[in-house]
Amino acid sequence: MENVKPLPKWVMKTYADLWANFKRSYFSFKDASEKLKIPRERLSVIISELNKSGWIEVKLDKKDARKRDYKLKEPDEAVIGMSSKFN
Questions:
Q1: What CA–CA distance (Å, rounded) separates 22 from 34?
Q2: What's the pTM?
Q3: CA dihedral defined by 13, 45, 60, 2, rounded to 10 degrees?
Q4: From start to end of the chain, where are the E strands?
Q5: Which residue has the higher pLDDT, 85 or 69?
Q6: How far apart are CA 62 and CA 83, in angstroms?
Q7: What CA–CA distance (Å, rounded) separates 17 from 1?
Q8: Which of 85, 34, 25, 86 is nearest to 56 (CA)?
């Protein structure tokens, strides 16, 4: 299991909002920005934090390498990934 790091509280709140909207589905940056109605710059930082901490999967768009699709790790999977017992 991939090493997952704890999230800062301000990132965790957005993770919860993203999970409530997308669950196990892939979503684009645009989808997330429109659903959550937060500034693009802030969302960019949050997605970067989620990626660095291992809470999100990033997949390059097949048609446009500048675009990415995102998929959240399930909350229980991420929490188990933080445990040193499983790493």
A1: 12
A2: 0.87
A3: -60
A4: 27-28, 56-60, 68-72
A5: 69
A6: 34
A7: 25
A8: 25
